[in-house]
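Minutes, project check-in
Item: structure for the 126-residue chain
Input as provided by the requester:
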Amino acid sequence: MPRSERSPLLLAGLLAAAGTAHFAVPRQFDAIVPRSLPGAPRTWTYVSGAAELALAAGIALPRTRKTAALAAAAFFVGVFPANVKMAVDWADRPAPQKAAALGRLPLQLPLVLWARSIAKNGDSAA
């Protein structure tokens, strides 16, 4: 399978794994939900997990790939505040954990660009 055909499936797999993790180990995601959001953190954990699963399905299907990839790009921008919260909250943790939390911040940009690239190429992928 050419790289261009694998790209959307890899992003779909990443989103599916992350979405599944929201349901399998929700506590770790609850902790990074910004306090400014209304309602219980667990609700946001489940909603974001369900959104990731829906985005994964949409990107995996050529017919809905472009729309789902654009939505995924917006989703990656939307969850950035949670990653910032995690980096702030983990400032006092051991160096490897702090580095992982800080490392998540610049990774959002490649995710956004990856999703946009898939959307731009529509059915044929990135």
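Outcome recorded: The radius of gyration is 15 Å.
No further action items on this chain.
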